[in-house]
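Sequence only, no structure available. Ideas?
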Amino acid sequence: MIDLKSIRGYLDDLKKARDNNTLAVFVGAGITKTSETVNIKIPLWVDLINDLKRELDDCDESDFLKIAELYYLKHKGERYYYKIKSAVPQNLTPSNVHKLILELNPQVIITTNWDDLLEKAIDENGYFYDTIACDDELGKSSLPKKLIKMHGDFSHARFVFKESDYVNYKDNFPLIENYVKSILSSSTVLFLGYSFSDFNLKQILGWINNRTSSMPSLYIILDKKNEWKQKYLESHGLIPIIVENNELEIFLKGIQLNVDYGDERPED
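Reply:
I predicted one. Tokens follow.
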């Protein structure tokens, strides 16, 4: 059971950032998984890669990004696009976790996901965010709150997945890259839904190595304790907080409370 009292300092820091409009939330694939139902399953990255690999004959490559690149080179753009798009269920609905993220009132939400669950949650709950999935949209953005889809999405037929997408990211999304880097330097950040081995997280870690200790804190939620993973993340300037998957909602509600936590859990 999560002990909110033991992480009160972290919760207070996140709450202060929320109140000062300096809170940014990064949303990874683990948050999309919270929208799974009995009948709708969301594939893991490894599942999608293995599906691609089955169509590459005798390919013995093990690098996920290279496998995606090889599939693209063999089948070209249109088939590649529809293959990836068809692997992600299109009839998903936002989960309560998506709603709780919005209730934190983050100034910026940045996601590496391609789905439209955050957009749906924003519309369904009456929030106002500019949704940005390409540099042109960032330049035209007028609302103070922004949802940055830093890896694109299907509606733009442009998304980051294969090796060349990561290699050429700074050329394909220069404004978004600089904007995200500025957020990492100026905002209190909460990473949700990222695993230790997530390549998307590795890309972001490469952008924060030059931060100074005087900058706002970067927090990352892990679903279980692991001394070495925690040390690695700490070496990159992140503060790990252990929250089991079934207690993520309790943690998010805890940020919103203005009470002496004691050993109490937020009310459902």
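The CA atoms of residues 49 and 171 lie 25 Å apart.
Hope that gets you unstuck.
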